[in-house]
Design goal:
By secondary structure, the protein is mainly beta. It has one helix spanning about 65, and strands at about 5-10, 15-25, 30-35, 40-45, 55-60, 70, 75-80. The chain has one domain (about 5-80).
Amino acid sequence: QVSKTLKFEQEGETVVLDVRGLIYHGDFHFTSRIIGTDGMVWYHDGMTTGSSCENEGDFDKFFSRKLSRCKGKKLILVVYARI
């Protein structure tokens, strides 16, 4: 299950990290989803999209289960960042 945010305490302050990227693997190939600061999800597969990304919609509408797979590939890495 993918957590859309991570929260922890650091020096008395609550730190919140948001998902900013997801890396998938399958068939000896990597693909990714990139989440923009506006909450839009962008799909990238260098073999099919080249240097472009495809808009997949609003991140708020993605369920954790939907995030665990992408076009037949399994999620292997989640990237979080502080905004």
